[in-house]
Amino acid sequence: MKQNKKLLEIILSILLFCISLTGCDSNINVISSDQDTVHNKKHLDSTDAYPDQDTPPAEVSSETEEDTVNALEPTGNPNTEINDVTNIDIAQNNEDINLIQKTEIEFEETSEIVYATANVNIRSGCTTKEDNIVALLKKGESLNRVGFHEEWSKVIYQDKTYYISSDYLSLEKPMSTEVVIDVPSSMFPETSETTQSVIGNENSAHEEGSDTDNPKNASADSSSEITSNNDFVSKLNLASEVTQIITVIGNGASDCTVYFHKKDKNGVWKNEFTVDGDIGSMGITYDKREGDKKTPAGLYSFTLAFGLKKDPGAYLPYRQITEYDYWIDDVNSPYYNTWVNSQEMPGEYISEHLIEHDPSYTYALNINYNSDCTPGLGSAMFLHCYNGKGRTTGCIAISEEYMKRLIQQVDEQTRILIVPDFEDLKKY
Q1: Domain identity same for 346 and 309
Q2: Range of the domain at 401
Q3: Do 298 and 415 have their domain in common?
Q4: 342 DSSP assignment
Q5: Taking Cα atoms as reference points, which of 310, 313, 312, 319 lies closest to residue 382?
Q6: Phi and psi (nearest 5°) for 404?
Q7: Which residues in the chain show pLDDT less than 70?
């Protein structure tokens, strides 16, 4: 009995030991399985994690590398669509970041006068987006450059900081290019068969997003010829009557060329400058009407100089604009085509609030058109500064630089001749 009892105790001890060994093996297998699963998720193409199996466990093999790639593509799964949109948004944000980084330019500080070598856009930022164009700087016009980079220049325009492509700025003023035009002999019978007259070859205003901002695409007009002949004014009948003439000649659409000639003490006409200008969006007409967006043709004088800035030294009476100043264009008003100060003459007016026309009225000259103030024949016809739009509602616009020069020289005897083309010069 004692032997049997001892044998049973031995067997029981062996059984307990075996049970304890089985439990340890189970725990070890669980841990190993977890480790293998983790290893397999990192290396889905590897089967070494499962040396005792031909293939990975089913629950792991269902997550393939192909599934991971396709998870970014649009599917019927709402969560996948959200992920897709998120990735698109991230891509757009990355483009914006790259754009911002691209526009963060380190400028070399400077202070120098630079000239436009071609018609070029003045921009609010260092990009060629269409919505950041502020104005058009025309060939030969100057600005103060306060910052330089090989791609962009920081300039001062209208007392504010803007940007222009550095490729179109030069420290040297470009030579004026002029196109030879064959004027019919019928215009000036006393001359030879053909009289060569000239107009500036800077008429082409580069539109938003045009090749102006890309010098590789800019090219000169190969048909243009250079000439110093700019004396057509001396052939005009009115040349003997005055000593200063501003001639505005239409070039089609809303473009024109503006000439300023002065007669010297020897009676010889000299061209002071020739510059591109803008006219009414509907061109030049001999039948001007209120609101037709046309510039009136004819020969006129000037009555008044005015502007948003202080008097730069005008010959004519100069009036600086205030917040109370209006020019009446209401055909039913007794003050039609006149300047009204609302403090002096209170009332409701359909009119131009002059102070709101910046930069157009930085400097301006009132053209003595419709001096009888006949209702409906047109009002507020000025020679003023560019508005940056490439057209006006009937006025004539040139750059501030040349407008200021005119303010300082134009007097009551100065005449402005406006014609739709060279052919019409023979009328004067």
Answers
A1: yes
A2: 230-427
A3: yes
A4: T
A5: 319
A6: -65, -40
A7: 1-6, 16-103, 175-230, 349
To the query of whether residue 395 is one of the catalytic residues in this protein, the response is yes
Both 156 and 267 in one domain: the answer is: no
How many Å apart are CA 291 and CA 343, to the nearest integer?
A: 27
Given this model, what pLDDT does residue 42 score?
33
Q: What is the pLDDT of residue 19?
A: 59
Same domain, 246 and 186: no
pLDDT on residue 319: 97
Any idea what the CATH number is for the domain that residue 155 is in?
A: 2.30.30.40
The reply to whether 384 belongs to the active site is yes
pLDDT at 387: 87
Task: State the catalytic residue, choosing from 126, 256, 385, 395.
Answer: 395
Give the pLDDT confidence score for residue 389 in this predicted structure: 85
* Measured CA distances, 107 to 111, 151, 199 (Å): 12, 10, 38
For 186-293, where are the alpha helices, taking DSSP H only? Answer: none
Burial of 24 by CB count in 10 Å (0-12 exposed, 13-18 middle, 19+ buried)? exposed
Please tell me the distance from the alpha carbon of residue 342 to that of residue 299, in angstroms, as a whole number.
32
Task: Using alpha carbons only, give the angle 9, 10, 12 rounded to the nearest 5 degrees.
Answer: 65
pLDDT of residue 261: 96
Q: Which of 126, 261, 384, 385 is catalytic?
A: 384
